[in-house]
Fold each of these.
Amino acid sequence: MKLLKKASSRETISDILETGVLNKIETDRKIPAPYEMKFLDKSYIDDVISLAKLVVSLLEREDLFIKDSKDFFMENIFDGKGLLIGVLCEGKLVAYRSVSFPMNSARNFGKDHKNIPQDELSRVMHFEATVVHPDFRGNSLQEKMSRYALDFGKARGMLHVCTTISPYNYPSIKNIMNVGLTVRGLKRIDNEEYEGKLRLLLTMDFRDKPKMLYADSINIDHRDIEKQKYLLKMGYTGYKVQITDSGFDIVYGK
Ligand SMILES: CC(C)(COP(=O)(O)OP(=O)(O)OC[C@H]1O[C@@H](n2cnc3c(N)ncnc32)[C@H](O)[C@@H]1OP(=O)(O)O)[C@@H](O)C(=O)NCCC(=O)NCCS
């Protein structure tokens, strides 16, 4: 709630959200690098597109992340339609988080969740993309930017946040679970945007208290798609990730 108070007293969209010092990775060394986190407007679009392009070129699996086009940003993010938070280090964009408010459009991830009633779809926000330059990873930037985005979504009257993440994307699942979203579905999304890619469907209702205890918990290897689908069908939700000798598990509870 502290952040929310800060949010409502903010006067312009270009206000700085926070400043500090990041660990920058330079040839196996970490060096301090001052940064500022702030809202980005259209003038940053080319920097955003270049950063996404670089990160995509370095992905270890091609299906981990889908970069958005310039048109997507223009239609869904800028001019108050969504939000774009960025991190600048020595004047250079090193990370961003995009958010959209789909309202009653066809592309509303809330439709995938049985717990979101039809009359609340206009109060769904989407976590779209987060990108962090490889030299600046490990500074919890995805989590920090996502927390600011949630505060702004709540201040705008949203009740739910929804997102999709590849079941192979450990850092993203971990960070998004840390801010409170849980896995409620898993499917291949057969449309032009996702081209049949497999995605975990995560959501959070802002009115719910975070569930701390599950009577029944089961660890599933993230690659075991069928078992995860079965548990989801049985009413389990995925709420934690755990590193294992062979990779990582997603922990499902009921
Ligand atoms: C996902 C991403 C945004 C996270 O970056 P970040 O905020 O710097 O990550 P964090 O600082 O929170 O690190 C979280 C954990 O993941 C690890 N990590 C971060 N990026 C990693 C990567 N690409 N590969 C493996 N591990 C990674 C960190 O060491 C940390 O692990 P730990 O908590 O067990 O020690 C970043 O990896 C990225 O840009 N990935 C490519 C684009 C993408 O997949 N975006 C998310 C989908 S929209």
Amino acid sequence: MKKKIISGALAVLMGVMLIGCNAKTETTTKSANDDKLNIIVSIYPLKEFADKIGGDKVVVTCLVPENMEPHDYEPKTKDFETLTKSKVFIYNGLGMESWVDQVNETIKDKGVTIVDSSTGVDVRKEENAIDPHIWLSLKSAQIQSENIKNTLVKLDEKNKDYYEENYKKFKEELENLYNEYKPKFDRLNKKNFITGHAAFGYLCRDFGLTQKSVENLFAEGEPTPKQLEDLINFCKENNIKTIFSEALSSPKVSETLAKEVGAKVVPILTLESKEEGKDYIQVMRYNLDEIYSCLSKE
Ligand SMILES: [Zn+2]
């Protein structure tokens, strides 16, 4: 009898505890979401950098839709609405977003912190145009990530240590990958490769390589017959046996070129949109590995 009363009381008590727990869980979830920093980034690699550093303290949304060539993107009315509701807008800079002045003008009085991720990067030019593809350099990606980290620390100081720690870990990953491939590329005799659009200038600068491209910096226009002829001659003179090609940019021209010079076409990844099943470090490792193994075999 005594036992039954006890178990009855225990059941009631447990019931109260369960209700208590449920109620608590709901409030926790709600306030946790409210607490998160709402970040909008322009292009995909910035989403990865912001997620790496912000972790579970942030919600990051990318403006340019998946599978869209960001050089072709223009913001829509709904994008402006999303932007004005966010806390932070991070863009690549250096002309990657031709529309960014218009966006910044619209959101600057709406309490949105605007971050140019390229601040402090040593800018390179190609044919007098500024090259915006800084995220494809492990060195520049580190500066972009540091700019993002500094913004998060400023806006959410109570989580400073968390952001600093995440940044430190990511920085180490970037440095380790660089240190792994730098000596390998230094030992190579062959340094030239052909790619789809001129996206790998910063990667080349990091590793002492040279790219020639089928399309220009902004993935505009297919080559003229004269330019194609120059590329064919370049490949023949340099005995180039690999043509790198991107999913979003002129794969047909790359195939034509490869056929003309007896080379094979190998995919290379610009990270201008999400690569299924690969994160930033994995994509960079893939690119470096493919470039290295092609150049070392040629
Ligand atoms: Zn590009």
Amino acid sequence: MAIEIIRCLKDNYAYLVHDEASGETTLIDAPESGPILKALADKGWSLTRVYITHHHWDHVDGLAGVLAAAPAPVYGAKADAHRLPPLDHAFEPGDSLPGGAEVLDAPGHTLGHVAFHYPALKALFTADSLMTHGCGRLFEGTAEDMFNAIARFDALPGETRILSGHDYAQANLDFAARYAPDPEALAARQAELPRLAAEGLPTTGTTLESERRLNPYLRCHLSQVADAAGVPGASPREVLAQIRLQKDNA
Ligand SMILES: [Zn+2]
């Protein structure tokens, strides 16, 4: 199986997951139709289905344009069916989907937000929940929701790649540097990100293992992170809430 990362809009990512054995191709989110249709054409893949992570416009507004050129069934959360584009299949957290993904509940950014885990690919498509070196803003859910979602992800194998919905890596890393990240991992990534930017390469797709060294939202159980957040002795849940609040005000 192969993953194609597609840049859309200003800083969004859409993804194609292609299974060479079956010839099937799944699109994950549709921020903008043009780049997605171009990627399908460049690869010579035909669209089999679409998965949607959440209802925000910058994840669904390209859908109508994609489907007009490449009709395919659309899968989205039953809980959000009323505010998602028309769904052909409504799923619930815990479901296994055609194409090989398992649906993980990931509320916090929005209430119906989900992530797609492909055990066979060792890949987790997190959109605006856990992100590269950060996590999404809490528009609808609570810090507790986000904490629980991230704890679910953290139970996955360390080699799992985290594929998020936006390229916020540089801003997230600058912020993460305040919260006692692993110094070696920080220095390596600080050197790597400008090089990726210069070459126009994606910043998404870091491993869970590397995020555990850098991402403060995966490190809330560490005393040095609680200290850095100004809440020494606080519970991991409280530390996450505090860091997210400080990011909102940064
Ligand atoms: Zn969003």
